[in-house]
Design brief:
This protein has 177 residues and is mostly helical. It contains six helices and four strands; from the N terminus they run αββαααααββ.
């Protein structure tokens, strides 16, 4: 699948992308700000608990940067917000897998623990779902702008007016005029 900026923008869908990016961005911003405010050690692999998750200074900084990217996507809106959501969501899920492999090792520079991994998976799927909503599906409705962009000939036919019919003998339907 290709995500291009020339795809049509549907304002109703843009609101979903914006709300998703904004809410997730604010949640990450709060988490990151709490960690930075506590003055957590930057490269501690053991981490300290912030909002039920293990964190260190580096994870707090990464959370704030990610939050800024999501909030910027929410401000811009449209296809940009959708693409940002899909990308950030995918990176969250990948981060969950990578950090799962690094648990209890000296390479665990983000101080992840199992709750962090689960949070990363869930948050990644939520963010990606907000980005894909109404944009990626096998059963998009015919009035969806993404379906119309991908199927221009069928979209023309579905929006063209039906041909007028002439009445046949005894008022029965006839053939098109």
């Amino acid at each position: 699948m290709k995500l291009h900026e020339e795809l049509p923008v549907d304002h109703r869908l843009s609101q979903v992308y914006r709300v998703g990016a904004g809410l997730c961005g604010v949640a990450l911003l709060v988490f990151g700000a709490l960690g930075l405010a506590d003055g957590l050690p930057f490269f501690s692999t053991s981490g300290e608990r912030i909002a039920g998750l293990s964190s260190n200074g580096l994870l707090s900084l990464v959370s704030v940067v990610t939050a800024v990217v999501l909030i910027a996507g929410a401000v811009i809106g449209g296809n940009v917000a959708s693409t940002v959501n899909i990308t950030v969501g995918t990176l969250f899920v990948l981060s969950g897998f990578v950090n799962l492999a690094l648990l209890d090792s000296s390479a665990n520079v983000l101080a992840f623990r199992i709750p962090n991994v689960l949070f990363s998976f869930v948050m990644g799927l939520v963010i990606a779902t907000f980005g894909m909503y109404g944009r990626v599906s096998g059963k998009l409705p015919l009035d969806n702008p993404y379906w119309q962009h991908r199927h221009p000939r069928q979209a023309e036919r579905s929006t063209a007016p039906a041909p007028a019919h002439r009445a046949g003998p005894a008022g029965l339907p006839g053939r098109p005029a």
